[in-house]
Structures are given as C-alpha cells and as structure tokens.
Design brief:
The structure is a single chain. The protein has a 5-stranded mixed sheet with strand order 2-1-5-3-4. It is globular. Helix 8 packs parallel to helix 10 and helix 9 packs across helix 10. It is built from 10 helices and 11 strands. Helix content is 29%, strand content 13%.
Length: 346
C-alpha cells in the first residue's frame, strides 16, 4: 500500500507557500484619479475608483477610458480619449499598454494628462512598484528587515483639493498655456521667451484631414499625429486666449487662401459665446463642439456610416450657418434626431 502522507507535529506548523513578487499587487485596490488640465477649476474632477483584480493586472488604457467615459457624461467640455494619458503623481507618463500594478500602488494619486501616451511600456520612465512594497503603500517605510510597517491609510477625496494647490516640486500650482497647440502647464518663474512652441492660427478639421491653419502642408488623419505636429512659433507661455477674430476654423478659408475680403466676417469664439450668454444660451465653447463632432464621426464611421459622407454633410451645414462650430454641431444633432424620429414613426 502507498505510504501515508507525513503528519505535522504540534510544534511545527506547515510551511506557507512562497509568495510571488506581484501577489499583493494583483489584489483589488482603490486609487484617486485627478483631472486638473483646464485652467478653469470648475472643470476639474477627482474620482475615487475601486479597481478589481482584473483591472489591476490590466492596461492603463482601461483606467483612462473608465474615467473619461464617466467625466463626459456631465461635462460641458468633453475629454477626447485619444488626446489624454495616465500619469503618476511624480509626473511620469504611462503607456496605454503599461500594467496598472507595475506603477501604481493602492491609495495612490494618478492624473489624467493632455497629450499622447508613450508609444510602449519600454518608453515609460516611471519607477516600477517594488516587489517587497506591494500595492498597499507600506513598502517605502524605513526598516527593510523585521516586521512589515503598517500601510498608510489612503487619502480621502476631500483632502485632495488642498493637496493639489501645490505640485510635487513644492511650487505654486501651475498655470496653463492657452496658445494654439500648446496647452501645457507651466510656472511663471520658469517661463522664458523660448518655453512655448505653438501655432499661430487655430486648427482646421476638413473632411478626414486635420491640420493647423498656419501649417496647411502638415495634414494628419488621426488625432495623435495631429497633436504631435510641432509648433511653428516660439515664445513664452501665456494664459491669455489667442485672438480668433475673423479666422475660420473650417476648410473653406484655407482652400481660398483667406484672401476673400468679400466674404462676411465670422464671429470669434469669444464673441459667439458672449452672444449666447446674453441670450440665455450655453457657453460650451467651440472646442467642445469640435470634440463632440469628432467623436460623433468616429462612432458613425465604426457603425458603418461613410466618414466621407459625414464630412460632406458637415461642410454643407457649415456653408449654410456661417462656420460657427457650436451652430454646426447643433444643426447636425437636430437633423440626426429628426431622422431617427422619422424612422421610429415608420
């Protein structure tokens, strides 16, 4: 007969199985996600999110999408998913494919930042979470040997605003540059005459192409490439919005070289918003309308509706309403809603 398994004596408890280096990191955990990119603090948001085990061992892109989808439900100015990435509290950008548990501990503060994510995890410069520190926040304490330090309690959401008034370098809260193609945060003490690389004219979204009106020869067909076009001007950062008086954000003026003086002068975004506010309308802004139209086109294209057809329809609406992006968006939504209602009625 086979020999019976060895019995454990009362004075010798069975040994515990060795733990893997990432066993702690794979547990569900809570993190605090902050969005503080707009200069207007009313658009800021902090969310306390509980990540299940599968998300902790999954890509950072899933966490970004979760936050963006939640934010855009009630946002005046929607976040464009392809134009943001996740960053650690120390400012290190994380790639879309980076595994959450490799860089983020439980109770950590992470940030949604504007700009393209690193191309791959190999390009990430953030330090990885130490294997003996786990994801509980207790691995950074003193006394590497002996008993493990008790993990620090995660920060509360209410304490976050007070902490966010000072950045990790101990400086006053950063300002945000408003120049076309920049939108970076900066500190006035570090602002020099060569700090900002920006575009002189606003963006143009024409058919499938995206480009800056001052650089029409640098056309792009996806958002990441468009945001990566280097600015044609250099100066200091500024919080003043650039003047858009008389500038069209559509493709028509660029094709004609902006030389047609007989065309009616288009209102600037600020003039349009002021008029809307005076009449009791909303002030979501041209940027919000552009982002929503871009998202609408993407969704319809994925659903099988021709992107070229969408662009032609948008151009026709733009020609009728005078080029104001908010008006174009409102007209397109009204027309699409009418079509759906007609389909519903049969």
């Amino acid at each position: 007969p086979p020999a019976p398994p060895p019995r454990v004596t009362s004075g010798a408890p069975p040994p515990c199985p060795p733990s893997t280096s990432n066993s702690t990191a794979r547990r569900a955990m809570k993190v605090f996600i902050h969005y503080e990119e707009p200069s207007d603090e009313s658009y800021h948001k902090t969310s306390k999110i509980s990540l299940p085990k599968k998300w902790v061992s999954g890509p950072c892109s899933a966490v970004v999408k979760l936050f963006v989808d939640s934010y855009n439900k009630n946002a005046m100015e929607a976040i464009v998913l392809d134009n943001v990435h996740l960053a650690t509290a120390s400012g290190h950008a994380l790639a879309s494919e980076s595994v959450v548990s490799d860089y983020i501990e439980a109770g950590a503060d992470v940030y949604i930042k504007t700009g393209a994510a690193p191309a791959s995890d190999a390009d990430v410069t953030a330090p990885k979470v130490a294997a003996d520190g786990g994801a509980g926040g207790g691995g950074s304490g003193s006394g590497g040997g002996g008993a493990a330090a008790m993990p620090s309690p995660p920060p509360t959401a209410a304490a976050t605003p007070a902490r966010s008034s000072i950045d990790t370098g101990g400086k006053p809260k950063a300002l945000q540059c408003m120049r076309f193609g920049c939108q970076k945060k900066y500190h006035e003490a570090d602002n020099t005459a060569t700090s900002c690389s920006y575009h002189k004219l606003p963006p143009v979204f024409h058919e499938t192409a995206k480009f800056w009106a001052c650089c029409p020869d640098k056309k792009c067909y996806d958002w990441d490439s468009f945001m990566g076009v280097k600015g044609c001007m250099t100066s200091c950062h500024t919080t003043e919005k650039p003047d858009q008086s008389g500038k069209s954000l559509g493709g028509g003026d660029v094709r004609s070289g902006n030389t047609d003086t007989s065309a009616p002068k288009l209102k600037s975004i600020d003039e349009f918003n002021a008029q809307k506010a005076a009449s009791g309308g909303g002030t979501g802004g041209a940027g919000d309308a552009i982002a929503k139209m871009y998202q609408l086109r993407q969704a319809m294209d994925k659903a099988g509706v021709s992107g070229d057809l969408f662009d032609r329809a948008k151009e026709a609406v733009s020609a009728r309403v005078g080029g104001d992006h908010e008006t174009i968006h409102a007209e397109v939504v009204t027309r699409l809603t009418a079509c759906l209602e007609a389909m519903e009625k049969g």
